Amino acid sequence: MTTSDRPTVYVETYGCQMNASDAELMLGRLAECGYVAVGRPERADVILVNTCAIRDRAEQRVLGRLGELKRHMGRDAILGVTGCMGQRLGPALLARAAHVSLVVGPDGYRSLPELIDRARSGARATATTFDPDEHYRGIVPRRADGVRAWITVQRGCDYHCTYCIVPTTRGTERSRPFADVIAEARAVAEQGTTEIILLGQTVNSYAADGYDFADLLRAVGAVPGIRRVRFTSPHPNDFSERVIAAMAETPAVCEHVHLPMQSGSTRTLRRMRRRYTRDGYLACADRLRRAIPGLALTTDIIVGFPGETDEDFAETLDAVEQIGFDDAYTFKFSPRDGTPATRFPASDTIPEPVVSDRLERLIATVRRGSRERHLRLLGSRHEVLVERRARRGGAVMARTRDFKTVLLDGDASMLGRYHTVALTGTTGSTFTGVIVAPHGLAGTRTLPLAPAAAAG
Ligand code: SAH
Ligand code: SF4
Ligand code: F3S
Q1: Can you name the residues that pair with 9 across neighbouring β-strands?
Q2: Could you tell me if 292 and 236 are in contact, meaning their C-beta atoms sit under 8 angstroms apart?
């Protein structure tokens, strides 16, 4: 053991918010067994690299990092790989990297302490069996952020889009018991957290104990002290009228939806097996905007999907312009082993220079649109929640309800507080602002259970 008689653990997380939320569960599980979290691998008895498999680049990065860690880790330290790449590669990872002792998939974190103990006595192990009942009930996540809390409400995915590895790495879709989600929301609110982000791969298809996502939004929005509710990622097909009504009628639900489009071409969407058409997506965006005034829309788009023609791509550009996204995450298609998209004929593969050109044009189109929208917002007033210190000294990063980033002069004492700001400048993507009215501490703080409240 290094610094004290309690073992130390360092977790490094890649990939999406669900993985970050899982890291909090792992740390919670290990804390039950006496582990102390540390911020650097050099000092850790146990190093966990919590991985992503969504694109090849994500995996290459992890492989490089595992090589680096080999040089930095202590002689007796245990190195484990968790998360989606661990699930995907399993024993192959152990074979490939002799300094890795354990590989644990997203449903195996409950047994982490035992696996680590066994690794200490020399047993290398893989734990990648799916457990469709695993919701990590009873484990209290060790949250890194006291201002916002990510709450996983659904694990796995049943959609099977042809490009996507997630159903392979996270198994079938299952929704967490309704009462457990509400209990967790209450617990974080009692600690002083005022914003909750509900997580699931198709989060708005949530269904458990006779409740749907509309019920969940209303119930989480009604938890005393919760002032903002967000969710990611919804699927366009799961926006029922009930869900949209719940969003519109629940004051805490923020005016922002991240609505992955993937492509603006019906032909490509079919080949992706997204289960909606271009018109279906446009209609969904329209229904949301009509129900929720001032709604910001962001999206995910893939370019260079097998067989994507110039016309298909032009339709994507056209949809981006027509919808006017506030922002978009854009990706080059990355073939994932075993997914249906790898079985299109080789002649469907889009040459790399074409893919790069499309990505550049797409990014330029997204930027132009969001810049125009953002310039129009200059001078307007918004409620912001201060989330963290900015990289620049003497500044903090805050967010509006519609998910705009605003830099303000200030210090750590402002974290977790709400203010009204006027937007004074924009880089095109983020804003600078000045406070025009402080709102003080958020929400109604109800009976803090833990005195060491995390809001700061
Ligand atoms: N469940 C979410 C997406 C999770 S993955 C949803 O369906 O909306 C996040 C994003 O990664 C996807 O929206 C997609 O744009 C991108 N992505 C997934 N698989 C990919 C692949 N094989 N190549 C490139 N991008 C991919
Ligand atoms: Fe992947 Fe599609 Fe499921 Fe999203 S909905 S996780 S893109 S299979
Ligand atoms: Fe990556 Fe797994 Fe998330 S593949 S994007 S970490 S669900």
Answers
A1: 37, 46
A2: no
CA of 354 to the centre of ligand 1 (A): 20
Whether the predicted model's global pTM rises above the 0.85 cut = yes
Task: Starting from the CA of residue 173, give the closest ligand.
Answer: 2
Tell me the CATH number for domain 8-127: 3.40.50.12160
Pick the residue whose CA is nearest to atom 11 on ligand 1.
54
> Quick check: CB of 164 below 6 Å from ligand 2?
yes
Would you state the pLDDT for residue 446? 32
**Cβ(160)–Cβ(273) below 8 Å:** yes
Predicted confidence at residue 392, as pLDDT, reads 81
> For the chain, which ranges sit under pLDDT 70?
1-4, 438-456
pLDDT of residue 4: 61
Whether the upstream peptide bond of residue 380 has omega within 30° of 0, thus cis, is no
Structural domain spans, the chain? 8-127, 145-254, 378-438
Q: Which CATH superfamily is domain 378-438 in?
A: Nucleic acid-binding proteins (2.40.50.140)
Whether residue 201 has its Cβ less than 6 Å from ligand 1: yes
| pLDDT of the residue at 451 | 32
- Residues 219, 80: Cα–Cα separation, whole Å: 38
Token pair listed for 331? 């990706």
Amino acid identity for residue 303 in this structure: V
Neighbours of 372 (CB within 10 A): 11
CA of 202 relative to ligand 2 center, distance in Å: 7
Ligand 3 closest atom vs CA 17: 3
pLDDT at 401: 98
* Amino acid 449: pLDDT: 32
Give the nearest ligand 3 atom to 53 CA.
4
